[in-house]
Amino acid sequence: MQEIICSGSPYEVGYKHGTDAREKVHGSLAFYTDYFWRKSQMNWATASLTAEKFVPLLQRDWPDYLEEIKGIADGSDLPFSTVLAMNIRTEIAMGLMAQDGCTAFAWKTAEVSLLAQNWDWEEAQQRNLIHLSIKRDDGRPSISMMTEAGIIGKVGLNTAGVGICLNAIRARGVDYGRLPVHLAMRAVLESTSRVEAIVKLEKSGVAAAVHFLIGDQSGSTSLEASHKDLVKLEMQSGRICHSNHFIADHTDGVHDTVFSQDSLERIDRATELLNQAASKSRMPTVELLERMLEDEQGLPGAINRAASGKSTTATLFGVVMDLDKKDVDGKEYIDFIAMFSAVNSGHCNQEIMDAVMKQMQKLTLSNLATHTASWGPLAQRLCMRFGYDKVISGTSGSEATDTAVKIARKWGIATKGIRKEEMLVFGVGDSFHGLTSGVWNLQNGTAKRTGYGLDDTLQTNINPTTGKVLRYGNIEDIETCLKTHHGRTAAVIIECLHGGLRMDVEVQYSRAVYDLCRKYGILFIADEVRQGAGKTGKFHCFEHLGDDVHPDMVCMGKSIAGGFYPCSYVLGTNAVMSLVGTAEMASTFGFTPIGNAATNVTLDIIDRPGYMQRGEYFGKWFQRLADRWIEEYEFVIEGVGCGMDMCLYIDEDHSTQRVTARKVAALCVQKGLLVVQQKNRVRMSPPLILSDEEMEKAMGILKDALDQVLLYETVPGEFWTGPL
């Protein structure tokens, strides 16, 4: 298939198309001149007059398309009305197209979003097909499509990861006030998301009957169009397929003709193939879908169609589009930070998305006048699953930790009898519990915090006697502090596993803190917001401390709802939670129907056999590599794999090899691996749905960055240019 690469203004794009594909554009004209006459005794002059009925609409709303068509006409030495008619061919035929047998399907999982189609048409038109690429540098997506020479919109995808397939539908009727089919496809390819594309078509309408399968990295939507309406069909279990007849009910007066019995058979066969692969837990790949497109069951009217007898229709091309995550230039990235675990279950997890979208169509928010019916069962599920008596729902992780500390203070006053002006709540060094005014003071002090007036001597991670930070991992620090101050200490809040020290050291330390809290009658609050939800091989980090460890309160957040909705929870025993009275804790968006739906499905996913064990598996994988890199690179001084929390320490003060963690991280990003830098650490937090292949690729990129970092004087992104 001839490739034509265009750029510039709409006219320049069209002119390059017309010039480079001149012979094929003339071939398309000859094909459709013959086709229209054979099917309806319509000559080309009549076809051109019909097409011109769309000019007022296009001049008003889509002038760039007219300019591009004019460029094709000039470049190929044809009249403008002739090239316009080729782009309006579906509307000219008005349902007369016959023997078209395209089959399209899509498959979305947490790891990948794929869109596939066989395009079936008369074999005589195969010689006139082109691969058209339109390069953009103005912020709009670049486009790559398989099309018939002279036509500006067809099957393809763009650099925003939006793709489109089509199936012909034989249903009479045309509306000259709506966007023609092939130009509607171009509008989709000009979009930056599936949602944007669908909104465009809902606004413009589509002039004649057709089916579009529109996808992006979040999944695909089946859009059945007629000259009167648009009907959407969504994926079921992450899969959807279509052929050449309407599946949904349409407006009165819209009737299609199933012009080929094999349309029914092909959609059944495509569904069967997709379901068979899914039932075998097969990972969808481009290669797997290509094999499905080669299926010949039911020849000649198979998915891979063949011309036979009177039918001259055959599969002219097949295409599988990978709609994976891309940047504005179309570059793919492996997300190895996942917003520090907020999307542990993967971007756009289909199961969670389906549950959230289903709930969004029923009820959005109902918490004050009456509780939503889904909250009670979820609250009971959380308490029974983790062995607690009561639960409070919030939104952010910071809200959860702030709420837990707030409850601990009341417990300190009401139960332990501590005077409020003397009460201590301790955090430990190098922790993060959020940046609200109630918990920021539990973390390492900064000039920024001081600037807000939030330094505190009562809620702190500093020993009041020594004035020194309670270093995480140093048992003596916390032991000395509590020995002196336990009588006025209400609680210690801690991330049981930080991921900054070797895991056995962190387990030993956090267990010692727990034992000290039990010894002195101090509440132990486990902050599981970042490191919980199965990330380290167990649901909660505190479970690594021993079967007898049961924190007084547990804070959950981030990925507990798969990243689809901000949800957080504080679980606790009656001894502390019963102290909370009416109107003492409230969150507008706590326990919403949408959040409840997302949390329930996420819990289902995390508790599946083998899911949490992935964290331990990948953590050990990284640790083995990191141990080797310590020996291989002088500037690598330590590496820690704590489940899916991984970090590499860089010696930024090395006497001869000047390397910073930010430089390594920036080089990784340039190579397609998203990581972050914190102090002298390269931090990683990939999702639990990570595949072995993705892990191998990511570690290969990281090693390449370590190999090459000394070769670069600077790396884009190495230096922060924003506010300090």
UniProtKB/TrEMBL annotation:
Q: What is this protein called?
A: Ornithine aminotransferase car2
A UniProt-annotated Pfam family: Aminotran_3
Q: Which family does it belong to?
A: Belongs to the class-III pyridoxal-phosphate-dependent aminotransferase family.
Q: Which UniProt keywords apply?
A: Aminotransferase, Pyridoxal phosphate, Transferase
Its needed co-factors are:
pyridoxal 5'-phosphate
Q: Its domain of life?
A: Eukaryota
Family matches, as PANTHER family: AMINOTRANSFERASE CLASS III (PTHR11986), ORNITHINE AMINOTRANSFERASE, MITOCHONDRIAL (PTHR11986:SF18)
The record ties this protein, via InterPro entries, to:
Aminotrans_3, C45_proenzyme-like, Class-III_PLP-dep_AT, PyrdxlP-dep_Trfase, PyrdxlP-dep_Trfase_major, PyrdxlP-dep_Trfase_small
Q: Does the keyword Transferase apply?
A: yes
Q: Which SUPFAM superfamilies does the protein's record reference?
A: PLP-dependent transferases
GO MF, one term, reads: identical protein binding
Would you kindly state one Gene Ontology biological process term found in this protein's UniProt entry? L-arginine catabolic process to L-glutamate
Q: Which Gene3D superfamilies match?
A: 1.10.10.2120, Aspartate Aminotransferase, domain 1, Penicillin V Acylase, Chain A, Type I PLP-dependent aspartate aminotransferase-like (Major domain)
Q: Name one GO cellular component term.
A: cytoplasm
Key word Transferase present: yes
